[in-house]
Amino acid sequence: MSWAGCAKPPTPGPAFAAAPEPAPGHARIYVFRVDPQHSLSRVEIGLDGDDRGHLGNDEYVTFEVDPGPHRLDFRQRGLAFASWGWNHQHLVARPGETIYLEISVRISAQPMPSSGGDLEIPGRSGGAASENVFIQRRTPADAIGILADTTLHSE
Questions:
Q1: How far is it, in rounded angstroms, from Cα 55 to Cα 142?
Q2: CA angle 74, 80, 81 (to 5 degrees)
Q3: Using CA atoms, how far apart are residues 118 and 127, in angstroms rounded to an integer?
Q4: How many domains does the chain contain in total?
Q5: What is this structure's pTM?
Q6: Which residues, at least 6 apart from 119, have a Cβ–Cβ distance to it below 8 Å?
């Protein structure tokens, strides 16, 4: 397969392995992405206003955090570095808790603010594409089953 003119897929990191329990007085957050429609786009992650990297498809990251309120920001970047989708999640982490968040990127046919035009979508009379980042909190049992097929994000 030739990748001429296309972005190369990242080299996969190590296969999923559960991180240690959070240190006493801390919590752990897993963020993972397993999209059924594979894409080379990446989702950038922010935690409490700090850039914490990005995820490709079938990847996960984990953060140990202090207890209390946190904000996670997710931004999907499409072609030509245009930001096409975004979302955020507020949560309150309790000491000793592990939180699992699944993110996915989906295309909708809703007009996008300042998109400047319509996009031809087969089978539809019109519309503009908008990629949106969806966030779903998962139970530990559901998350572990999904995480089993992921790799740790590595630069």
A1: 20
A2: 25
A3: 5
A4: 1
A5: 0.77
A6: 127, 128, 129
